[in-house]
Amino acid sequence: MYEQISNREFIDRFQVDSLGAVVLSREIPVARQKLMEYEDRMHQLVSQKREVAEQSGDNWHDGAFKPTDDAAKILVEQIAKIKKALQATEVSEPDSDEDRATLGSRVKVSQNGEEYSMDIVGIPLLHESESEVTACSIESPIAKLIIGKCVGEVVILDLTSLPQQIEILGIDQDFGQKASTHEQAN
CA-CA distance, 137 to 171, in Å (whole number)? Predict the structure, then answer.
């Protein structure tokens, strides 16, 4: 079921129902490109495997295919994730004046005294992590806690016997548009 919704609708619906898989509008062209790259790579691996089998004749052994089989397994998983994402609900970029953390936000947090930033994204696989910023899936426990929250709010991440306090220090809704504009220029 493919659907397009605004980011404000996403926040409202995220808090009351399960939307299933979602993807930012800007992630779709990147996902299509990655899908083509991965499928091309898969065809190359199949060709390599065929060459090994042809060259080895009756002398091949199971270990001859292990490197290509391992790489193919990873590619199959990545291709499946991207295909699923391309069928997901498409969510528009957050409005500049949105004060809540949402899909497409860059959020600066303090977790047990350590400050870091994360980008809340639909498909982390598509995002190259900057050293100081982590791509965080909306399906992750921390994103689920902070979506819909504002600067200054505190949430408790309780995944272990030591719950962690997370304070939202800043929310940037415009970083995604800046990144998209920069990518289109290059």
Answer: 16
User: Rounded to 5, what percent of the chain is helix, strand, coil?
Assistant: 45, 25, 30
CA-closest candidate to residue 131, choices 146, 110, 111, 117: 117
- Compute the distance between CA of residue 23 and CA of residue 29 in angstroms, rounded to an integer: 11
CB atoms under 10 Å from CB of 97, counted, come to: 6
Average model confidence (pLDDT) across the chain: 83
Helix or strand (DSSP H, E) at 33 = helix 27-56
Q: Domains in the chain, please, with CATH?
A: 4-91 (1.10.287), 106-185 (3.10.50.30)
| Bridge partners of residue 103, in order along the sequence | none
58-72 CB burial, b ≥16 within 10 A, e <16:
eeeeeeebeebeeeb
pTM (two decimals): 0.78
Burial of 106 (0-12, 13-18, 19+ CB in 10 A): buried
- What is the per-residue pLDDT across 87-130, written as a single tens digit (0 to 9) for each? 888 999 999 999 999 999 999 999 988 999 999 998 888 877 66
Residue 186 pLDDT grade (very low, low, confident, very high; cuts 50, 70, 90): very low
Report phi then psi at 24, rounded to 5: -75, 145
